[in-house]
Amino acid sequence: MNKTKILYITPLRGGIGHWSRYLIEELDKLADITLVTFKRKRKEDDTKPFTRVTDDFILEIIDPERPHHIIEYNNKKSLEDLVKLTDKIKPECVYFIMWAGRQITWFLKEYSKILNKKNIPMVLTVHEAYPQIVQKGDLQLFTDAYAYANHIVVLTEDALHDLRNAGITIPISVIPHGQYHAMNKNKVDDREARAIVSKHLSIQISDATRVILFFGFIRDYKGLIHLIRAAPYVLKTLPETLFIAAGSLELAEKPLQYQNEIQKLGLGNKFLLFGEYVKDYILFESFYKAADIVVYPYVGISQSGTMFTAIGMKRPVIISQLGSFVRKLEKQGVITTSKAKDPKAIAEKILYLLTHDEERKKLVKRAYPILEKEYNWKTIANDYTAIFKKLK
């Protein structure tokens, strides 16, 4: 059987890199893939340029010696080089993974226009149709960038509606986010995890301490400020509770607001902020497994890889009640939801799960197999392959 030749363009680090890692694992069985990734994504790349894949989880699937071409989306010469690579490979389809970054819209638009002239179809996966924090002109900027794709894939019904409302008429498919069970390596058990986090944060987490975790990049739309404000309500009833927020503050709009709020509320050593990207895998797993509950107090979100990671780590999840993907998961009984921007409501859900041990355990036991079956990467890869074959 001849495999469809695909030029696959994606970030190969961070959240989208992890998402692509899962998809590539299955697509490699179905298609002939050439990988292209990006050199620039964060400010730190100005001093420490990205030159190759270094994420251990991604390297499980993508051999470090596997040819992958590095492009710079802020460099017009790099666009010319990508066009030359495209001409050399002669793909039957180009697959481009897009994130909600203004800086890449020109690259996507110009490259897809060139592909259009060459009669090479492009499939575009849009992880967020538009930025959560919209600047003036963003809607038109992103809509124009999507215009030359032949098929768009989104992860939720909400994103589909956003694109249709913006006037996008090309075919759009909804293929949901897949489960992240493979991120659970079982490197540590719960007790070991608490010892590792205790040492890293220079604290002592006892067996009796209840731990509430927030994990992921810290941005205004992630709603961390509301979890901080929920903490006093929880501590009033369960004073032995410890809150931990772990994630990079690099992109935070007002990075000082969180520590200032913690101090203002007198939370002291009851709410710990670890504002760095967690690179070490043992520490990464330990943060999740040290937690009794993982809370995502989002203000606005289209999907959440870290939420799927928490379920893969067999942790109960509380997430803001917003978005079609959350409503579906809530209906399936795999997550607990709370009202967005409401610290008291968040606290009530935390207290309920902390004081109902059996229900908390049942939530985890129910969630894991449902995600394993219904958010399966083999099915997702087959859905993408059907789109590629239809276009070639």
Describe the fold and architecture:
This protein is of the alpha/beta class. It has helices at 14-27, 56-59, 76-89, 105-117, 138-146, 157-165, 190-201, 224-237, 256-264, 281-289, 305-312, 324-331, 343-354, 357-374, 377-391, and strands at residues 4-9, 31-38, 68-71, 93-98, 122-126, 151-154, 172-174, 210-215, 241-246, 271-274, 293-296, 317-320, 336-338. The relative contact order is 0.12.
Give the secondary structure arrangement, pairings included.
Blueprint: E1 4-9, H1 14-27, E2 31-38, H2 56-59, E3 68-71, H3 76-89, E4 93-98, H4 105-117, E5 122-126, H5 138-146, E6 151-154, H6 157-165, E7 172-174, H7 190-201, E8 210-215, H8 224-237, E9 241-246, H9 256-264, E10 271-274, H10 281-289, E11 293-296, H11 305-312, E12 317-320, H12 324-331, E13 336-338, H13 343-354, H14 357-374, H15 377-391
Parallel strand pairs: 1-2, 1-4, 2-3, 4-5, 5-6, 6-7, 8-9, 8-11, 9-10, 11-12, 12-13
